[in-house]
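Why COX15/CtaA family protein? Reviewers of the renewal asked for a concrete example.
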Amino acid sequence: MWLQLALTGLGVAVIPLCIVFLSKETNKHRKLIAVTLTLTFELIMFGAFTRLTDSGLGCPDWPGCYGQANPLLSHEAIKAAEVAMPHGPVTTQKAWIEMVHRYLAMSVGVLICAQVLLAWMRKKTTDISPWLTTSALLCVCVQGAFGAWTVTLKLQPVIVTTHLLLGMGLLALLAAVLEQHSHQIKHVSSMAPNVAKALILPATFALILLFIQVALGGWVSTNYAALACQDYPLCHGQVVPTMDFEHGFSLWRQLGMTTNGEYLPFPALVAIHWLHRNFALLVIVVVSYVAWQAMRTPGFESLGNKLLLAIVLQFLIGVSTIFFSWPLLLAVLHNGGAAMLVLLLTMLNYRVRHASHALSSPI
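Here is what the prediction returned.
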């Protein structure tokens, strides 16, 4: 099974590798990073689709599916599980969704291994440090471990949320690696060093707040609290509804249960949802301010415009999921919007620091 899975992962990775090495771009290394970043973004969105379609246990073992490399070989076991639990988490469709997610994750791992190999081979011929790329490899290994625990620990909320955070962290690392190989800070010479430095603190603060919000969003999703409040901006017609933060934010517990093994009370779900939607307001204000400052800074106007557009769209999608009762497409797009914000803010943070360093260094 392990050999078959490895060959499948390599087979999926062949497609993006062909895109890289058959392209006309001269810098194949940078092209590989860009393709890996794109595939990681898609993997995050497909991971959201996997979670939101309740396919996380479509194959209740790991790394295979009922001890096989793909659902075709596990057909009889899947059908038996469906007969035993007609409304359970195992169906042929969900098994394929889960396994496709794993195949994509394996292909990302292969592409990052290729990046690390190239980075260390070129260490002596370039001034680019390979350690940032190596940290991405370490991140994907830890991410794989949490992916396994997601299944073996039966979708335990803290594990699933950490899995999401690590995915976003991997995306941020790959964005930083791409920026490291791009050196495309435009109009740097027209800026004073203090202009670039003035963006460092708010941009860093915005990225930290965004990751907290991603964690809160993951907590909402994995606890199935998306519909705990179905009105906006109020919640059950109140500014501050009845909530249970103690049970809602107890981290080490089973899905849908309290730490005492009782069913999670509804006010706990309300608390989870309410905190996520209200913390979003702080994130919107801070990210919008950072976008506005970037729009006023030479060389960062385009990135600032994209960041402002992304935060506006993310807010509209988030509100729409409430009014339209959390349709699947909007929910997946909401995850994609969070990933796009992580991507843009990481790029801004890297470029601001790069520009500040370049302008401050003596010529």
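Residues 75 and 92 are 8 Å apart (CA to CA). This is the kind of structural detail the renewal will allow us to pursue systematically.
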